[in-house]
Every structure is written in C-alpha cells, then in structure tokens.
Design goal:
With about 230 residues, this protein is an alpha/beta fold. Helices cover about 20% and strands about 25% of the residues. InterPro entries: 3-oxoacid_CoA-transf_A (IPR012792), CoA_trans_fam_I (IPR004165), CoA_transf_BS (IPR004163), NagB/RpiA_transferase-like (IPR037171).
C-alpha cells in the first residue's frame, strides 16, 4: 500500500467534507500538524468539530481555521493563548466542550481502542459532570466519558519509515499518538521519511497500521511564550 503523498493537499484529497470531526495532535505549538491545518484552511471545509488539546494561537496552527470561521465546535482542554478563540466563544459564535487534559487524551485513546466509554473521577462535582451518567464504585462517584472516534486524524511526527511507522520527539508525543489512533483515517506529516527497516522497532511510538497517508515537509519551530530577561 502506497502511503507517501506529494504534499498536504494531495494527502487530504477525498477525505474532507463539511461538518466532519477532526482529531488533531500536538501540545501547545509542539508537534502540531501545521501543513495539514493550512491545507484544510485552503480547502475551505467548514462546520468542523475539532478535538485537540489546544486551539493554536492567533495566526498559527488551529488559529488559522478559527480566523476563517471554519470551526463550529472545539473539544479541548486548554484554549488560553488564542484571542480570536476567546472572542468567538464569548460572543456565542463557537461551541466549546471543555475536557480535563487527561480525560481528553483517554477519550482519544479509548476511541482508537474500540472502547465506547469509561468512568473517571476527574470532573465529578464540576460543570464537566453536568448531563453525564454517574456511577458509584467502591464508595466513590465516577462520571461516564465517551470515547472519541473522528472522521480524520491529523498528526505531526519527527520521523517515519515508508510503511508509516512513526517516531515523535519529546513533548510532541503527548497527544499525537492517541489522536492518530482515534481517526477512521489518519494523515501524518513528518520531517523525515526513511526506508522501511531503518527504525529501531523498540523506538517506534506508533505502528504504521494506524497511518494511512504520509507527507514530508518543512516545519516552523515556533516558541509559544518567549520570555527573556534584561542584560545584567
């Protein structure tokens, strides 16, 4: 099966439709699938539901799709770095489903593992628990969280082989693997593609069976919060 495509537009061909759900990897601005996000913007696909740890920043990452009003709903745990997101949410233009960070990661992992739901104590007694099933285990109250199954997963890895086995670097490993597994189709962008058999099997973070399409590209190394101190 040929998995390598010439670019983001080609890799997304035939996969995008209005109203779809997309699981996007990344943590802050680390390991975000920036090339695929830009291609989705250019395709004009709208009314999107996006499950992602964060919503990017103004002018970069998922912030691009917010600026063009292509996102209907965000399923996220942290949205504090995007002024346009805040404006749309407070004005009622954007729907937000808040998730504790670990819960969101587990919802993606569960969806990828074929688990429809799980019970957790996280969020009990808060607005997170409103409208959800409550159950008691060993004298403690738990709430039911549903697994996420997306129409498409978009992820960013450091290195891949030609069969789609992926290696992530450091913080990029936080949300990319579970996001990749929960999509019916997964498209990955990487910095380098090496021949099959080149990667140490013990160092592969995501097996290629989860990855359907693959692109290689140049990526911007952004710093989310640049803090410097004055010269002494």
């Amino acid at each position: 099966m040929q998995k390598i495509y010439s670019g983001a537009e080609a890799a997304l061909k035939g996969l995008l439709f209005d109203g779809m759900t997309i699981a996007a990897g990344g943590f802050g601005l680390c390991g975000i699938p920036e090339l695929l996000i830009a291609a989705i913007r250019d395709a004009g696909t709208k009314q999107l539901t996006i499950a992602s740890n964060n919503a990017g920043v103004d002018g970069f990452g998922l912030g691009l799709l917010l600026e063009t009003r292509q996102v209907r709903k965000m399923i996220s745990s942290y949205v504090g770095e995007n002024a346009e997101f805040m404006r749309q949410y407070l004005s009622g233009e954007l729907e937000l489903e808040f998730n504790p960070q670990g819960t969101l990661a587990e919802r993606m992992r569960a969806g990828g593992a074929g688990i429809p739901g799980f019970y957790t104590r996280t969020g009990v007694g808060t607005v997170i628990a409103e409208g959800k099933d409550h159950k008691e285990f060993d004298g403690e109250t738990f709430i039911l969280e549903r697994g996420i199954v997306a129409d498409l997963s978009i992820v960013k890895a450091w290195k891949a082989d030609t069969t789609g086995n992926l290696v992530f670097r450091k913080t990029a490993r936080n949300f990319n693997p579970p996001a990749a597994t929960c999509g019916r189709v997964c498209v990955a962008e990487v910095e380098e593609i090496v021949p099959a058999g080149s990667l140490d099997p013990d160092l592969i973070h995501l097996p290629g069976i989860y990855v359907h399409r693959l692109i290689q590209g140049e990526h911007e190394k952004r710093i989310e919060q640049r803090t410097v101190r004055k010269r002494v």
